């Protein structure tokens, strides 16, 4: 359930235009979060990567709880991608500053994914909501 909640929060930060069209007074809140957006992105990128590692390590769930395993893997992937997009400036500064080849590859990846950030954010909200529901329906004992 925590993955679903965090994915929804991250998606709301990633898609401010969607939030602003529904609630015009949300602009002040988003402006307060903006200075921390890079750090939030890095944390959620690693959180999503950890979720993917968890899914891979628990691949045996495919036989006992396949829907939950797929949900966990999909949600973690979306979370890692959104976190990467939001944290890219800091990731570039702290982790890729010494390796030019890695930096160029990261810039290419971001350039191909960035135009899809809005759709990825909406997908994140949907998958996050499903993760919350699935955590109640498909618990693993």
What features would you describe in this structure?
- It is a single chain.
- With 141 residues, the chain is mainly α.
- It has one domain.
- The protein is 82% helix and 0% strand.
- It is built from 8 helices and no strands.
- The chain has helices at residues 2-14, 16-22, 27-33, 37-57, 61-64, 66-94, 100-113, 117-137.
- Helix 1 (2-14) packs across helix 6, helix 4 crosses helix 6 (66-94) and helix 6 packs across helix 8.
- The longest helix is centred in the middle third of the chain and has 29 residues, at 66-94.
- It is globular and about 40 Å long.
- It starts with a helix and ends with a helix.
- The model has no long low-confidence stretch (mean pLDDT 84).
For this entry, give a set of tags.
mainly alpha; 8 helices; globular; transmembrane
| Alpha carbon gap, first and last residue | 15 Å
Contiguous helical run count: 8
Structural class given helices, strands, pairing?
mainly alpha
* Fraction of residues in helix: over 70%
**Can you tell me the residue ranges where pLDDT is under 50 for at least 5 consecutive residues?**
none
Overall tally of structural domains: 1
* Number of β-strand runs: 0
* Beta-strand fraction estimate: under 5%
The largest β sheet comes out as: none
Write the layout of secondary structure elements.
Layout: H1 2-14, H2 16-22, H3 27-33, H4 37-57, H5 61-64, H6 66-94, H7 100-113, H8 117-137
Helix pairs in contact: 1-4, 1-6, 1-8, 4-6, 6-7, 6-8
